[in-house]
Design goal:
5-stranded parallel sheet
C-alpha cells in the first residue's frame, strides 16, 4: 500500500516540486495551499504524514500542527514542518511537530525525514 502524504505549501513551485519528488517515490500526495480545510482533508485522505510550511500567507503551519496534534482522532499523525528559519528547532515542541525540514532543502533530506517518521 502506498503511503499518503498531505503537503501544505503556499508557494506553487515548492508545492509542485515536493509533489513530483514524492510521487516519483510512490507516495500518494494531497495538496493544499493554505491548510484551511486540513481537518476535512485528513478525514477524507487519511494520510500517514502531514508536511506543512510554517509561513502560509495568512495561515500559520504551527497552528495547523497544533490543531492536528490536539485532536485525539489525528494526534497520532506525524507532522513535519518546513521553514527557512533555522531557529525554529528551539520551538518545535511548543506546537507539537515531529520533525523539521529547513528550506532550501535537498531531495534526500526531505525523503530521509519522511522515512524516519513513517518507520517510527
Amino acid at each position: 500500500m502506498n503511503k499518503r502524504i498531505v503537503v501544505i505549501e503556499d508557494d506553487d513551485l515548492v508545492r509542485d516540486t515536493v509533489k513530483l519528488i514524492l510521487e516519483t517515490r510512490g507516495f500518494e500526495v494531497c495538496l493544499s495551499s493554505n491548510g484551511n480545510n486540513v481537518g476535512a482533508i485528513i478525514k477524507d485522505f487519511k494520510p500517514h504524514i502531514v508536511l506543512t510550511d510554517i509561513y502560509l500567507g495568512k495561515a500559520d503551519g504551527r497552528k495547523i500542527c497544533q490543531q492536528i496534534k490536539s485532536n485525539p482522532e489525528t494526534s497520532h499523525i506525524p507532522v513535519i514542518v518546513m521553514s527557512g528559519a533555522a531557529d525554529i528547532y528551539s520551538s518545535i515542541e511548543d506546537f507539537g511537530a515531529n520533525d523539521i525540514v529547513l528550506k532550501p532543502f535537498d531531495e534526500q533530506t526531505l525523503l530521509n525525514r519522511l522515512q524516519r517518521q513513517l518507520t517510527a
